[in-house]
């Protein structure tokens, strides 16, 4: 009896899924993210400052167990008042990037640092989803050109106890 690969040529029937990891040897692991300020400084070094006041963007910093930065990714670009973030995409990024914890950040083009209800809900969803995979949401920052807001410093990172 022939197996399925002998009966059919399936090579062009399915999409190939891949992972790309471009590491710059020695440099990213030297950056340790132990404070919200350190996270903001790293984010500002990679963020396109020309778009800070133009549109919302969402970034993820991947950290190892020692809080060393493994890498970063911009996962969403939106409009003037919002950007869409899929929790599953952030979790997948963390797992495939071999992270132990994450710092996530988005900007408010308006310059207002106060988190919206949607910002708080997303933070809770991310923290809960990451916890299911033994990962930690270290912080969520809102970035403006002049300043930042840390969810951790304001005690706004909560796990949704309904799922535990």
Q: Could you characterize what this model shows?
A:
The chain has 164 residues and is α+β, with helices and mostly antiparallel strands. The chain has a single domain (26-163), classed as 3-Layer(aba) Sandwich (Cytidine Deaminase, domain 2), CATH 3.40.140.10. 24% of the residues lie in helices and 21% in strands. The chain is built from four helices and five strands. The chain has a five-stranded mixed beta sheet with strand order 2-1-3-4-5, with helices on both faces. A hairpin with a 4-residue loop joins strand 4 and strand 5 (148-150). Helix 3 packs across helix 4. The longest helix has 15 residues, at 117-131. The chain is globular, with a radius of gyration of 18 Å. It starts with a helix and ends in a 14-residue tail after the last strand.
SSE diagram, text form:
Elements lengths: L3 H4 L28 H11 L10 E7 L5 E9 L9 H10 L4 E7 L9 H15 L4 E8 L4 E3 L14
Parallel strand pairs: 3-4
Antiparallel strand pairs: 1-2, 1-3, 4-5
Helix pairs in contact: 3-4
- State the end-to-end CA separation: 47 Å
In N-to-C order, the SSE pattern is HHEEHEHEE
Largest sheet, if any?
Answer: 5 strands, mixed
Low-confidence stretches at least 5 residues in length (pLDDT < 50)?
A: none
Strand content: 15-25%
Query: How many individual helices?
Result: 4
TL;DR of this structure?
Helix content is 24%, strand content 21%.
